[in-house]
Design brief:
Length: 287
């Protein structure tokens, strides 16, 4: 994966631009290369190494079958994150973060089921039996649920990881993930505290080009992990016919074993026939 990450590409995308020096977080010092015109410049060599590290971890999570929840509610990241997450077949939150999304997941699932029940009502004709006012209310509820939770309708359990764009803005999501010990991957700018997340990607989280570039690497890694999972599932199915062909060879062994003890049983009657002949000769000699 590291060979695919070019520092020049990151530079062209503006990944190196940090925040104003007066707005920096001192814990980001290891990832800052220099200061120029009052702005901190991020060390792109470290960014490339961190993208590689995060991509490998995300690939393993995807290969294990667990979901990765993407969170990005800022305007310049919404569409990009939604597109990349959908491409990798992963859930995402790009509208307001629903409080308790992770810590109160059971309630969130009830809301998703409510959305599914409305869909069933429309299919079986129950929806048409409602009054005009009730239909309008149900439609509004359905639209609201779709907007906030539509992208997580297939997420039946807690995600295996969280990917966040701008941890300062999404601090509630970060806190919930920390409480449940869910690994956090994040694009962290120079104004944020990198100690809050396990996999830090130091990068400009305000420019759409920068977000798009990092998200491309991340989504490609997840897709790679999913393809590996699919290949591993198909491999046992391909080997199954070969095993069934060898099965008859094993059934022949007991048959051969059964025939072997049968030989003495055939000879036994021959001995019993000879025995009376000897006794009759003995009787004639005595007479």
């Amino acid at each position: 994966m590291a060979n695919n990450i070019e520092v020049k590409d990151l530079l062209d995308a503006g990944v190196h631009f940090g925040h104003l020096t007066r707005r920096w977080d001192p814990n980001m010092a290891p990832y800052i290369y220099m200061e120029r015109n009052g702005i901190h410049i991020i060390n792109l060599y470290k960014t490339a190494a961190k993208i590689d590290e995060a991509s490998e971890a995300l690939k393993k999570i995807a290969a294990s079958g667990r979901k990765i929840l993407f969170v990005a509610t800022k305007k310049q990241a919404k569409e990009i994150v939604a597109e990349k997450a959908a491409k990798a077949n992963q859930p995402y939150i790009t509208e307001r973060w629903p409080g308790g999304m992770l810590t109160n997941f059971v309630t969130i699932r009830k809301a998703v089921k409510k959305m599914a029940s409305i869909d069933r009502m429309k299919k079986d004709g129950t929806f048409n039996t409602l009054s005009k006012k009730e239909r309008l209310q149900v439609d509004r509820l359905r639209a609201k649920l779709e907007k906030n939770l539509g992208s997580i309708s297939d997420m039946t359990r807690l995600p295996g990881a969280l990917f966040v764009v701008d941890i300062t803005r999404e601090h509630i999501a970060v806190k919930e993930a920390q409480k449940l010990n869910i690994p956090i991957f994040a694009m962290v700018d120079t104004n944020s505290d990198p100690r809050q997340v396990q996999y830090v990607i130091p990068a400009n989280d305000d420019a759409s080009k920068s977000i798009d570039k990092v998200m491309t690497y991340v989504s490609d890694a997840i897709i790679e992990g999913l393809s590996e999972r699919k290949a591993s599932k198909e491999a046992p199915k391909a080997e199954a016919p070969a095993k069934t062909e060898k099965a008859p060879a094993k059934t022949e062994a007991p048959v051969a074993a059964e025939k072997a003890p049968a030989a003495p049983a055939v000879e036994a009657p021959a001995k019993t026939v000879e025995a009376p002949a000897v006794t009759e000769a003995a009787k004639q000699e005595e007479e």
